[in-house]
């Protein structure tokens, strides 16, 4: 099976495979370039309904300390109270509240995103990338999505002014999700 349109066979419980998934982010730095990063430790589950996607649900938990921008000094700053305050808020969570089909293979996933103890509703447009049986007999589904948030909405307000005008770190952050989920038997 490698169909692109969701079907009844996909209905069931799934676990995100962190070894084959990525939860990342992009933020503008110094007004001139983008810094990309990811969270290396996360877990998630989904209840998918292939025929009635609006009955599907998702839960994801991310370890804030696992932030990785390929620069240890920057990562330590991001873990500090200036940004994620991971000592007080070790996890970032997302719990879906609604799913709406927007096309044959596209969906809007709405839910509560909690960062630094602040919960806000976000809607993430997702595309269903297909399903396949892996060499171990597992049914896998692929999903990709991204959404732009304002980090200040979550109490992440630290910044530094630039001599040339503007700020060191953009308020807007794009969250990126590339998910491989395995159906549970």
Automatic annotation (TrEMBL):
Pfam families for this protein: YceI
Lipid/polyisoprenoid-binding YceI-like domain sequence ranges: 13-182
Signal peptide annotation: none
Matches recorded under InterPro entries: Lipid/polyisoprenoid-bd_YceI, TTHA0802/YceI-like_sf
PANTHER family: PROTEIN YCEI
Family (UniProt): Belongs to the UPF0312 family.
Protein name: Polyisoprenoid-binding protein YceI
Source organism: Streptomyces aidingensis
């Amino acid at each position: 099976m490698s169909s692109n349109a969701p079907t009844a066979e996909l209905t069931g419980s799934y676990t995100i495979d962190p070894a084959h998934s990525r939860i990342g982010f992009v933020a503008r730095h110094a007004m001139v370039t983008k810094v990309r990063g990811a969270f290396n430790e996360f877990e998630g589950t989904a209840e998918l309904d292939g025929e009635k996607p609006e009955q599907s649900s998702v839960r994801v938990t991310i370890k804030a300390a696992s932030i990785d921008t390929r620069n240890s000094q920057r990562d330590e700053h991001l873990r500090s109270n200036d940004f994620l305050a991971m000592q007080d808020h070790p996890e970032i969570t997302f719990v879906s509240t609604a799913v709406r089909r927007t096309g044959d293979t596209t969906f809007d996933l709405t839910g509560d995103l909690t960062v630094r103890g602040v919960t806000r509703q976000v809607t993430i447009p997702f595309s269903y990338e297909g399903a396949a049986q892996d060499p171990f007999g597992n049914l896998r589904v692929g999903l990709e999505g991204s959404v732009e948030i304002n980090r200040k909405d979550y109490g992440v307000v630290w910044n530094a002014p630039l001599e040339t005008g503007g700020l060191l770190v953009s308020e807007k952050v794009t969250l990126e999700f590339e998910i491989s989920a395995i159906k549970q038997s």
